[in-house]
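Recap from last week: sequence in, structure out.
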Amino acid sequence: MPLWTAIITSLKSFSTGTTTSAPRTDYLQDARVFPTSGFESIQADHPVEEEELPDYQAHRFYPVRIGDIFESRYQVVAKLGYGSSSTTWLSRDLANNQYVALKVYVHTSLYHREVPVYEHMDHQLRTSPHQGRHNIRRLLHSFKLFGPSGTHTVLVFEAAQMSLRDMKLVFRQDGFDEEFVKGAVTELLQALDFLHTQANIVHTDVHPGNMLLGTYNSQLLKTLEDKEFSSPVPRKQVSPTRTVYLSRLMRPTEGPMLLSDFGEARIGQGPHGGDIMPLEYRAPETLLCIGWSYPVDIWSVGLTAWDLLEPRKLFTARDEDGDLYDAAHLAQLIAALGPPPPNFLRRNPDRKGDFWDRDGKWLNLAPIPNRRTFEALESRLEDKSGFLRFIRKALTWMPEDRATAKELLQDPWLAG
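Predicted structure tokens:
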């Protein structure tokens, strides 16, 4: 079943690219004047959205307001989300009446990998016959904003709906149906096969939060703009020049899966070094400080498939007391995968010595948990054999033992 046919079925229980039309010169007359009253005011002592981030500092964020117009063409109509380094806003491109997403970075974010990564794969995105290029979110434009505290980079992306992480959180906390997961993972693997074989890019940050539900018609997002007139979103007036808005949410409609956020991507096969991946998603080679390449993305595919299907994460990187540390993470890997091969540990003897003795015996800096095997943790499938065979092809200690994206696309659990 195609992914977004499956999504509609799954949720019953509860055009990419730029326009080709010539730009207009009189489009500012199409800007709308947004309401300045009629909304719920959030109390000053109640933190919301980005204010709840542990390292939040207001001055780092550009004070975007609904109704603002940037570059004399992009009018902000709704807030879509936020993160530690940016806020994202739905905007209408007045030049062609299409909706786009503006990702406004904090002014302290000085180096941006996304623009050079997109420049690197631009030719392949435009010309390759590979199906996976249609599952990569398109970067349309970039520009600078000069704010009260510094200069902010702004990336203009094709508009999209919510992420699969947010869809699960809002609509399916117990996990998506198996057919939906198969469709999502298939489109993710198509995107990764394109990145690995056509563009020579390691994404490094694959997880449901970076898998967006796209749209075949951006005009469907007009609903969010119109809601700002019929029911203005709640907001918090921090100062005369800064307002914190709540993000808008809409019921998902049909669209492609788009892999997004290339902020930590690397160009070339490598091996690369450095700290990558969300904590719970870190592949064994990153935990052991070994050079890494395309297989880190395959490890993430396995964990993504698990997270979409199951209500609980496979690896938490925490011990029974909730403390987060590498030894606890490695102990969970041992429980699920068995002990690491000696050949793998020999690739970084110094790091090995932090957790294993000279003979390869676990130093027990964290206890190996009981009943954390794949079979014990998988809770939703009547026949779990096909799914677990797929997972084991993606989650291996040795990076070279992991299947490629192309090989996983032929796996019986997906292809069958």
